[in-house]
Amino acid sequence: MENKYNVVVVGIGAVGAEMLKILDQRKFPIGELKVLARSARDEEIAGKTYSVRAADPEEFEGAEIVFFAGTEGEKGASVTFSPEAIKRGAVCIDNGADFRLDPDVPLVIPEVNPEDIKKHKGLIASPNCSTIQMVVALAPLHRVSRINRIIASTYQAVSGTGRAAIRELREQSENYLGGGTELDCRVYPYRIAFNLLPHIGSFGELAYTSEEWKMDRETKKILHDDSLQISSTAVRVPVFNVHSESVYIETEKPIAVEEAREIMSSAPGVIVIDEPGEAKYPTPLDADQKDEVFVGRIRRDPYVENGLHLWIVSDNIRKGAALNVIQIAEKMIEKGLI
User: Any idea what the Cα angle at residue 283 is, between residues 262 and 128, rounded to 5°?
Assistant: First the structure.
């Protein structure tokens, strides 16, 4: 008989709600399920009502797997509650950013570096959404011919900011199309409807944003290669859900376009849609509510022999957050690590 596990989900925003949907869809082997947040209430998700309890250390008694969906309050819930859960015997898998670069915490994408799971000391981190989709697509190529350089431009949906941002895009769009001129900007510093904002996160070192540095540092940690040269530009776009990326790579040895298509088509979690003659390529609509990372527009650099361009699309709330966390737990169960 299949073992069942006592599961706690902490956070009930966009990612937490998606976690609950995915746990149900994938028939995750749950014994007892608890949902925790800042305040107790009932939440209806995908036709099911969940009784949400206020997060408190005692709520982790008996827990075996704890999923942290993101931020609860001023600092990540995992910072506050993961020590409490771990000392009670649970394994914590965190979607938040607090521990991703901690050298004692493995940063895992199951399709890419599942072997790192066994290094955990009670806590495993899941990467940033834009990092996940890029690395799922690039890792198979990296294994064939080491990637020296990556230049990425991301086009990130408002769902990455949360429910308030989704609401703001909808309200601004409706007001603008209705002839309104005064559009409230509560979430973003400028109007997002029918606009682009080259600003995700806070500005820091060398005028890159925190989101842009995440792609650099997280990718190096996942691939165990600090010599990678990675630079990116992160742009918020008026799309409700699904992130897109234009990614350019330079490899040690040339990889032909046909070979690149074959490599990625055979990789777990990747779907290639790349028929330029038929104008076939992935769009955000193709990836919405899908588990896979979609790749298209694969073409060589006409001036650099080892250069390739790719277009990468993935559901940032699903594979970029909730699903990746649950896949880590599934991999642990498969390997007998829980």
Answer: 80
Query: What tens digit of pLDDT does each residue of 116-167 get?
Result: 999 999 999 999 999 999 999 999 999 999 999 999 999 999 999 999 999 9
Q: What homologous superfamily is domain 5-126+321-334 in, according to CATH? A: NAD(P)-binding Rossmann-like Domain (3.40.50.720)
Yes or no: say if 78 and 66 are a contact pair by the CB < 8 Å rule.
no
Reading the block at residue 194, the tokens are 């029918």
Single-letter residue type at 141: L
Question: Residue 182 has what pLDDT?
Answer: 81
Rg of the chain's alpha carbons, rounded to an integer?
20
pTM exceeding 0.90 = yes
246 SS3 class: strand
Q: Which residues pair with 307 in a beta bridge?
A: 250
Q: What is the set of active-site residues?
A: 129, 243
- Spatial distance between the Cα atoms of 205 and 185, rounded to a whole number of angstroms: 27
Chain-centre distance for alpha carbon 20: 16
